[in-house]
Amino acid sequence: MSATETQASPVHQTVRTPDPNAHPARLKADAVSVFYGEKQALFDVSIDLPEKSVSAFIGPSGCGKSTFLRCINRMNDTIEGARVAGKITLDDHNLYDQSLDVVELRARIGMVFQKPNPFPKSIFENVAYGPKIHGLARSKADLEEIVITSLQKAGLFEEVKDRLHQPGTGLSGGQQQRLCIARAIAVGPEVILMDEPCSALDPIATAIIEELIDELRSNYTIIIVTHSMQQAARVSQKTAFFHLGKLIEEGPTEEIFTNPREKRTQDYITGRIG
Amino acid sequence: MPGSNEHIVSSYEEELTELARTISEMGGLVEKAVANATEALIRSDAELALTTVADDKKIDAMQNQIDEMAVSIIARRQPVALDLRLVIASIHVANDLERIGDMAKSTARRSTQFEGIAMSVQFKNGLRHMGELVQRQVRLALDAFTGRDKDIAVEVVERDTDVDALYVSLFRELLTYMMEDPRNITMCTHLLFCGKNLERVGDHATNIAEQAYFLATGKTLVADIGDLKREQIKS
């Protein structure tokens, strides 16, 4: 044991319930800590995030779940004074490697935000933008195909096919969110991060997005941060519970919601004071 | 897992508490019904038997009440984890309690049918013993449920073999009386049905204990008992 380890406070142990049916994980976090200046926001988070499945991060506000999500596509790089320690790997490549192109990384790891944020451009342009700047389309026909396929995968095409050149901002909230998902899909990501993707939507629009997430999971590693525990229970196969910057418990969603092993997890998901 | 805190939403907490309390109340009624039915049978007390039969209506009503409470909590609160287990287990336990109530009612009703038939007191010894045993089983199963005590639950499940063994010996005993003197057949057949009822009460007590185990641990006892047995064999 090294000197620094002996000095550190007792190491926090995450309670883990293995899932024998889980897909292999291409995305792995190893002892990830995040500091905002002096303040430590995340403590030694290690977790494997299986492909072709949805992992949900839950926990009270300020628990570090969004901070951790933003580590995965290096969004924390943009925050002044933020420092990330530890390792996150995608197919065994460290995402924090100096030589890594962050722009390219964000094409492989797409993100959908809490509030739908379409560009002030046409529906078509919203989806075409990414493939264009990443040089993914060789011709106009190519680009059109990417846009249409992405809109189809996002379950939006039928609703907008007659008005592809009208502004994306003119769509309803739920449609805008699916447009953002289409935009993320268009650049061919492997991972899709979703930060409270339904919190601004009504129940029907939420149900449509949840159905979409379920369809998308056969092709992507999806990670969703949500305040709605019912949503985590509905859409995810794996659930991770964060509290005060620590990963308290992770395991198959069914286990977490029927028989959590940690008292703090149980207190949180059942609506008790932690 | 150590004891839980209270819900942030106090009305939710109250509903869960009320559900658990209603189960206890129903359990109390059912324990009394079994005790009364056995007593009425042993002492040939027709009055007590009729009271027991009449009281079964209360038990049936309580089962409906518990079902309604559980459905309402599921619909409005979307319980998870131990709360969900309490609600689901309550539905099961209320069902088993209602069945125990029916067994008590059936036993009590049957006891009124052999008025005037002469019989030897020893015919009823086996039933007396069985009645005591299943009452204990029901009481322990309910204790395990209320106290979320998995050890008591396991004890109840394991002891059910005693009830079964007692029933088998009662069956043989009554058969012997019947073979000795055909005039005993009517009486002994009635008693045999009562014995069967008590044996069924034991089975329902086992079911309640299984629910208590599930409530306490989140696992099903049947799977875990296999493991327990294997461990015992090893050691």
UniProtKB/TrEMBL annotation, chain A:
PROSITE patterns: ABC_TRANSPORTER_1, ABC_TRANSPORTER_2. One of its GO terms (cellular component) is membrane. Keywords: ATP-binding, Nucleotide-binding, Phosphate transport, Transport. InterPro entries: AAA+_ATPase, ABC_transporter-like_ATP-bd, ABC_transporter-like_CS, P-loop_NTPase, PstB-like. Residues 1-16 have a biased composition (Polar residues). Residues 27-269 form the ABC transporter domain. Residues 1-24 are annotated as: Disordered. Gene3D superfamilies: P-loop containing nucleotide triphosphate hydrolases. GO terms for biological process: phosphate ion transmembrane transport. One of its GO terms (molecular function) is phosphate transmembrane transporter activity. It comes from the Bacteria. Pfam families: ABC_tran (PF00005). Belongs to the ABC transporter superfamily. This is Phosphate ABC transporter ATP-binding protein.
From TrEMBL, chain B:
GO terms for cellular component: cytoplasm. Keywords: Cytoplasm, Phosphate transport, Transport. It comes from the Bacteria. Residues 23-110, 127-211 form the PhoU domain. Belongs to the PhoU family. It is found in: Cytoplasm. It comes from Pelagibacterium lacus. Pfam families: PhoU. The lineage of its organism: Bacteria, Pseudomonadati, Pseudomonadota, Alphaproteobacteria, Hyphomicrobiales. Its main location: cytoplasm. Plays a role in the regulation of phosphate uptake. One of its GO terms (biological process) is phosphate ion transport. The keyword Kinase does not apply. Homodimer. This is Phosphate-specific transport system accessory protein PhoU.
